[in-house]
Amino acid sequence: MVMGIPGPSELDEVQQPAQEPERPGVRLREALSTLPAYVPGASGASPGVFKLSSNEVPYPPLPAVLAAIADAAEDINRYPQMYADRLTHAIAAHHDQVADRVLVGNGSVAVAELIIRAMCEPGDEVVYAWRSFEAYPILVQVAGGTSVQVPNTADGRHDLDAMAAAIGERTRMVIVCTPNNPTGATISHSELVAFLEKVPSDVMVLLDEAYVHFVRSEDPIDAFSLLPVYKNLVILRTFAKAYGLAGLRVGYAVGRRRLIRTLRTASTPFGVNAIAQAAALAAIEQDAAVGARVAAVVAERERVLGELRAQGWDDIGDPQGNFFWLPLGDAAGTFAADALAAGVTVRPFAGDGVRVTIGEPEANDIVLELTKRWVRGASSGNGADETGVGGSLQR
Ligand SMILES: *Cc1c(COP(=O)(O)O)cnc(C)c1O
Asked: CA–CA separation, 145 vs 208, rounded Å?
């Protein structure tokens, strides 16, 4: 028999001697016993299935990024720069900011985690819209904070008045997600300014702009222009979406110097790996190529949304990310199952709706075939109007 790792039965014997009374085990903090699960988008693992469930871009890495990765791989016996200095400076230059304002982390979720942990004493409140990014409730709860979720308006937008009204004595921060994941709704620049005017100066506003590159709306947010005015504003960005580096995990926050400096001190040393640093650095220099890819996704989004509206989907709002939202209510799971059968994975939120990523044109066409069938199915069972398109889908 091979020596070394004990089999399960041997382990059991070691851990639970039958003759001794069971001793108490280690205990995690109470807050961790009731965490909501983060359900990742289905992985589209089977060949021939398109993955439209995680809001990734469908393109392979840019050649310059792959070359930087190969280059960096040769030095992975060495630690990376502890605080990703070169990348930090490149990001700062890209946004016309000083490097002291930029904090890089292992994905923007990790940066958000650090910020929320740094902000919340037990019982402190974090206000955010709901439904929104499903990482937020987990991050707040693990940090010991309390989530205050403010329902979106009927068309999936943040209810900024209600969010401002939800700010109380214990509120330390508000998270604003625009375009909102999963509904795709955006906030305009003037709406954001009006909101910031209402938020007390000692309450942080964390502006999650993961999908900012895809926005083509009127009056888009120019968050960097607001940083000098609203010192409680922190901007959150990622390399996972438009830059196509989801698998490498790089994101960053930009905010006032004093805050960023302390957060950096509290961050994980060597928290961004060497390959991710090199790849993000290369990606940021590929502005034109990244921009072209984003433009292609946006064009495809507009094509898909146009088709959807022509099919009779009149309640999809004006999604501005690389995804759209079908408010299907209880039918969300059935739609997702139908989608998988048709060859695409989408992201259902039980009882609420389905988020569909804009992918390859071929994948989007599969989705459009499916949505057409669904509108027809709903209309036949639901009293179609004169146009032959059902006014309301079964919810
Ligand atoms: C995808 C996404 C992110 C990106 O997270 P990373 O950790 O950088 O991959 C952040 N916020 C929202 C709302 C997202 O949808």
From this structure: 19
Verify whether ligand 1 is closer than 6 Å to residue 210 (CB atom). yes
The whole-angstrom separation of Cα 69 and Cα 274 is 9
Nearest residue CA, atom 3 of ligand 1? 210
Lookup: tokens for 78: 């060495």
Q: Which of 271, 267, 246, 248 is nearest to 79 (CA)?
A: 271
Strand spans (E) along the chain:
50-51, 102-105, 125-130, 146-151, 171-177, 204-208, 233-238, 251-254, 323-326, 344-345, 347-349, 353-357
Q: Coil, helix or strand for 347?
A: strand
270-289 pLDDT, tens digit each = 999 999 999 999 999 999 99
What is the set of domains in the chain, with CATH numbers?
39-57+288-380 (3.90.1150.10), 63-286 (3.40.640.10)
With cut-offs at 50, 70 and 90, classify the pLDDT of residue 44. low
Cα–ligand 1 centroid distance for 57 (angstroms): 13
The pLDDT of residue 14: 52
Is the beta carbon of 133 within 6 A of some atom in ligand 1? yes
Give dist(CA 310, CA 4) in Å, integer: 64
For ligand 1, whether the C-beta of 113 sits within 6 Å is no
Q: Which two tokens stand for residue 42?
A: 């289905």
- Give the tokens for residue 75: 């030095």
Would residue 204 be called left, alpha or beta, if left means φ above 0 and alpha means ψ between -120 and 50 degrees? beta
177 lines ligand 1 (CB under 6 A): yes
Is the shortest distance between the CB of 195 and ligand 1 below 6 Å?
no
Lookup result for tokens 């990606």: 283
Our answer on whether the CB atom of 55 is closer than 6 Å to any ligand 1 atom is yes
Phi, then psi, of 345 in degrees rounded to 5: -95, 135
Ligand 1 centre distance from Cα of residue 211 (Å): 8
| Spatial contact of 165 and 200, defined as CB atoms under 8 Å apart | no
129, 159 in Cβ contact below 8 A? yes
Q: Which residue from 186, 182, 215 is spatially nearest to 325, judged by alpha carbons? A: 182
Instruction: Give 328 Cα–ligand 1 centroid separation in angstroms.
Output: 24
Residue type, 358: I
Q: Is 251 in the pocket of ligand 1 (CB under 6 A)?
A: yes
The C-alpha atoms of residue 244 and residue 179 are separated, in whole angstroms, by 17
In the predicted model, what is the mean pLDDT of residues 129-144? 97
